[in-house]
Amino acid sequence: MSRVIRISFEIKDIYNREDFRILYNRYMGETDNVELFIISEDTTAYINSVQAQLGIAEANVISCDDIDEKIEAIDDNNIDIHFDNLQSNIVDIEEDNTDVTCILVNQMTDYYGYDLSYVKEFERAIKEIIENT
Q1: CA 119/CA 112 separation, integer angstroms
Q2: DSSP string spanning 66-87?
Q3: What is the pLDDT along the chain (133 residues), one digit of tens a residue?
Q4: Contact 30/55 with Cβ under 8 angstroms?
């Protein structure tokens, strides 16, 4: 049995992207070896809407006032992979926690231009976690 991989994402400007929803459905939806979290600086009703739609446990939805609270939530919940929409957040999170793999969700394609680079980064991160378990 493989261990549960804990994945979080910032909801702002990420879940509304079709490519991220495809990635979610492909790797994170309806699987026993992934525990999903929303760790977000968004405080709108949208966060609750996505939580209900995805069936994420209420305890796994964390609304933060700032980056320091986001870093604390990632640390406290032993997140393995965190998706974010801001490079500055990724830098801050990785400076504080070397155990989490942060992935910037953007439109950049990989070297060959076949896939979005963040999708490839996610696939590499998952493979590395599985190999090191």
Answers
A1: 13
A2: SHHHHHHHHHHTT-SEEEES-H
A3: 468 889 999 988 888 888 888 888 877 776 678 899 999 987 778 888 888 888 889 999 999 999 999 999 999 999 999 999 899 999 999 888 778 999 888 766 656 656 777 888 888 888 888 777 7
A4: no
> Which pair of tokens denotes residue 114?
């076949």
What CA–CA distances, in Å, run from 124 to 47, 73, 86, 95, 131? 28, 24, 20, 21, 10
Q: Token pair of 11, please?
A: 């909801």
Q: CB burial class (10 A; 0-12, 13-18, 19+) of residue 2?
A: exposed
- Sheet containing 61-63: order of strands: 61-63, 34-40, 5-9, 81-84, 101-104
